[in-house]
UniProtKB/TrEMBL annotation:
Residues 319-509 form the Beta-xylosidase C-terminal Concanavalin A-like domain. Belongs to the glycosyl hydrolase 43 family. It comes from Streptomyces phaeolivaceus. This is Glycosyl hydrolase 43 family protein. GO terms for biological process: carbohydrate metabolic process. Keywords: Glycosidase, Hydrolase. One of its GO terms (molecular function) is hydrolase activity, hydrolyzing O-glycosyl compounds. SUPFAM superfamilies: Arabinanase/levansucrase/invertase, Concanavalin A-like lectins/glucanases. The lineage of its organism: Bacteria, Bacillati, Actinomycetota, Actinomycetes, Kitasatosporales.
Amino acid sequence: MSAPAFSADRGDGTYRNPILDADWSDPDVLRVGDDFYLTASSFGRAPGLPLLHSRDLVNWTLVGHALPLLEPAAEFRVPRHDCGVWAPSLRHFDDRFWIFWGDPDHGIYQINSPQIRGPWTRPYLVEAGKGLIDPCPLWDEETGEAYLVHAWAKSRSGVKNRLTGHRMRPDGTGLLDEGKVVVDADRLPGWFTLEGPKLYRHDGWYWIFAPAGGVETGWQGVFRSREFFGPYEERIVLEQKDTDVNGPHQGGWVRTAAGEDWFVHFQQRGAYGRVVHLQPMRWGDGGGWPVLGDEGAPVTVHRKPELPPQPPAAPATDDDFPGGRFGRQWQWTANPQNGWATQHSGDGLRLTCVRSVHAHDLRKLANVLTQRLPGTPAVIEVELALGSEDPGARAGLAVLGDAFRWIGLQRGADGTAHLVHRFAETVADRERDADHPRPAPGGRARLRIETSTGARCRFSYDVGEGWEPSGQVFAATPWRWVGALLGLFAVAPTGGGHAGAAMFTRFRITRS
């Protein structure tokens, strides 16, 4: 059996970074027994809080999501691409898994479950407030106290570059004080945009692993104190140095059962989003500070952790949509509504052509089914049949960001189905043609996107006469905090009655 196309496992006892070459933003990692788990930011997409599993920290599979719907549910009925779930922390305490995250507009939430696959509790608002982000709890076994540390979003609170600590109720239902600034990075020469703290207890010290310097150019800092509320001393433990890994930072420390230490973090890569790297870690001599990577520089290729061999694996991308159901790799651009995707007896994704006033701007559609754009050059293909007879109904395959482009089918006023290719620039409020429409006999087409270095996307189609290129090369763009997304959609102009549906079959992503 061949290895998955996107596995980081090199098959010779080594791995190559990134271990997750797609937008698994702001990762946090946890070990329970022989199993490792990872979660990441999911922002405004639903379901949220992805849950990944590994036995060797290199080969990962997506096993589910912890958050079926975002709350407040009414606010996420429409796309809020850069809002929602920011920088979660994943912990295990009292025989339960816990995830804490900050919603910059509402406050700090938590959910918990006895099993990683759930059932998870509904979101509980631990602390309401604007700009409270990146929370991380600690249940201190040495003192019996529970603590929480968080960062600040200046866009909501007017405050940034500092970390605030609190005592917390052991059941995670609230904070016990107004909080104290435990690290004020404005007082540290050269430090800015301190955020993303992860809180640990080790060797008699409180440790806060926290990045600074911004997502594209930053570094990983570590702070330590004998007392939770400080004072803390600091050290930079990971930075780009002479490598090509810009801004290596923000993630979590994990220790294997055999005592090896590793650090998982992200690298911001433009339209590809925040890809995930794995760094070796050790506790240094003469002071006990952690040493990450190759003496503080990120590694590209390294030996795998000393753990039992595992088969190569990577999060799923392909989908045959059995019975009309879609795989775990897909997320809607907002909280889903009943009837967007209907189950049936065969294979294929049947998407309803949802009527919308935003039919000409995919960025405003809630009913776009998305997955992450691979960070490696790839070929994306899907087959489409447009069943709707409603004039203006359309469906297609998209690359979605601040700018977007899609290729697919649209029903004309005369009942003819046309192959169309459309795009919108970042500043445009509606799409326009990227190529001339042409007839699509039988309302069927095969659609393809070929990506190359720099997230450059070449679109093509086949309406029965072989593959034909369409339009110019499109350079995918991210959202503000989210990498570009691949999307499947079906939509129709406003009007009365049911607008029909589109069928997608054989979705495939292969390394090119």
